[in-house]
Structure formats: C-alpha cells, structure tokens
Amino acid sequence: MQKRNFTRVEFTECASIKHKDQVFFGNVKNMSLQGLFIKTDQEIPVNDPVEVTVYYSHNSSINLHASVVRREENGIGMQINRMDVLSFVHLRDVVAMQCNDQNLIMRETYKMADCIH
C-alpha cells in the first residue's frame, strides 16, 4: 500500500453510489479529505466517475463527485474530485474529530481547496 498523503480515519456509515444510471448502497470503511473506501460487492471500472452521498446523521450528508481509483474484492476506493462547501465542512469535521493534529488537518484543507465548488 502506498504512503497516504491525507489523514485517513475509520468511519462507518451508509453511503449511496450513483454510477451511470444505477444507484446502490454500501458502507463507508474509512475516509480522508481526498478520498474514501466503501464496502460493496458492486463492480465499477477504475477511473469511472461516480456521485457519492454519505449519510451520517438524520439532517446531514456529504455529497461528493469522485473517481474510482481502486477495486478490491470487498469494496471500492475513490478519489474525491469535487464537492460543495457544506459537504466539505462536514467531511473536514468528521476527519478532524478523529485526528489529534489540527495543524495537519488545516494543511490538508488548503490542499483540497480546488475541489470545493
């Protein structure tokens, strides 16, 4: 496994994945400001774009545009390409709650600024 450039945290919540005209569900295993891994048996080709919604409370979700970068037997690794500001704030809060180095999270936030729309 390559060295990660972003802090990855365990996060177990339900997510929907929209690929072409299909929508299916899986469970997030972990996530960072740059990507996430979702446990699913669905097969999506590497490099294909997807839309992901992570449901983490009754009133909040994280909406992402991503690309599949890795396919494993038990799930899909995705890199985030674009998200709205509110989704980024929610994602950053999830990662920051589990990380003891807030300065690191701030540096990672600046690296992701181009993905926020």
Your description of this structure?
- By secondary structure, the protein is an alpha+beta fold.
- The chain has one domain (9-115): predicted glycosyltransferase like domains (Thrombin, subunit H), CATH 2.40.10.220.
- 20% of the residues lie in helices and 44% in strands.
- It contains 2 helices and 7 strands.
- It has a 6-stranded antiparallel β-barrel with strand order 2-3-4-7-6-5.
- The chain is globular and about 40 Å long.
- The termini are far apart.
- The mean pLDDT is 89.
What is this structure's SSE topology?
Elements: E1 9-10, E2 14-19, E3 22-31, E4 35-39, E5 49-55, E6 61-72, E7 75-83, H1 85-97, H2 102-111
Antiparallel strand pairs: 1-3, 2-3, 2-5, 3-4, 4-7, 5-6, 6-7
Uncertain runs are none
CATH class: Mainly Beta
The count of DSSP E runs of length 2 or more, i.e. the number of strands, is: 7
Number of helices, counting only DSSP H or I runs of 4 residues or more: 2
Query: What integer is the average pLDDT?
Result: 89
* Order of strands in the sheet with most strands: 2-3-4-7-6-5
CATH fold-level assignment: Thrombin, subunit H
Largest sheet: 6 strands, antiparallel, barrel
| Rg of Cα set | 13 Å
- What percent of residues adopt helix (DSSP H or I)? 10-25%
Distance between the termini: 30 Å
